[in-house]
Amino acid sequence: MRRSYNVTADPRRVLVGGSSYGGLAAAYAGLRHPETFGNILSQSGSYWWTPPRTNKPDDFDPDAEPNWLPKQFVTSPRLPLRFYLDAGSDEIDLSGQGAGILIPTRRMRDVLRAKGYEVHYQEFIGGHDYLSWRGTLADGLILLMGESSLDKGADGQTGVPAPR
To answer: What pLDDT does 124 receive?
Structure first.
């Protein structure tokens, strides 16, 4: 892409994002390639997910412990990443199978904050759908890529003093 288009190589100015499994994939891309992606926008990320037991995509281990990706962040060194996470009030697990979105996203938020990451988190009233996500997409883009956020230094602080 950089060969064909005038795209920056500065990961602080590159965002990867997605919703549902795409939100999970965006966070994983940041974990594995922080030299490329510095900003992660995850709308209703599927943080409950665990890898299948084999190469068959439907071969999930019913006894697998959930929250695989948050555990990857726990065991990895802190990386130069910034996050926007959101989840809806109706994204709860009514089946008891652990596939809810709201609680695992809160857990991911807590893990990231405990590791010292800059995390913007929002809960919206709604469910797991594009109608809900269209309302928060701009919020995530502005928080991660807005002019003031790009002026932050390595310590995460802008040159503007905090309001008193």
So the answer is: 96
